[in-house]
Write a structure and sequence with these properties.
By secondary structure, the protein is of the alpha+beta class. 23% of the residues lie in helices and 25% in strands. Strands 4-3-2-1-5-6 form a 6-stranded mixed beta sheet. InterPro entries: CERK1/LYK3-like, LysM, LysM2_CERK1_LYK3_4_5, LysM_RLK3/10.
Length: 187
Amino acid sequence: MRTEGSCSSTCLGLASYYIPEGSNLTYINYLFNQQSSEIQKYSPNLKNIDVILTNTRINVPFTCECLNGVFLGHTFSYTIIHGDTYTSIANVVYSNLTTEDWVTRVNSYPPTDIPVNAKINVTVNCSCGVRQVSKKYGLFLTYPLRKGENLSGIAAENGVPVDVLQKYNPGSNFSDGHGLVFVPARG
């Protein structure tokens, strides 16, 4: 029996990664299976790959693909270290690019018994755009909202008109301080 999914495209996606304390580019390369030079290409604020500022954002490229014929996303592989929980992986390690609930759903280990050195899946949602909104943008940031951010600030920071940002994210509360929005970008 064949069923129709709700997606079929693949595109380049970007993760707006908020760099937590203690991170370095080698670690970020590992998390996203990406080279520093590729990250630097999409992160205009990253002038020197040997110096990254914590508590800032960089854009990390990844393949945005149709998963299970149902939604656009990418699944990264992560190896558990001592002290990891699904909450810490979602909120700290992957800087809210996913949720604890999502990490729990895509893995077979119970949240209270994740073995050290186990490989788990970390799925991040993404977007390839909506042609009805605009054909100008072919690249989208998966952007985790943070406390203190708002629609006009995110639009200005990313050079996107407010109305376009709203059209790509109907129903999103940009001042909520949590959740994901998709920010149009140019490659």
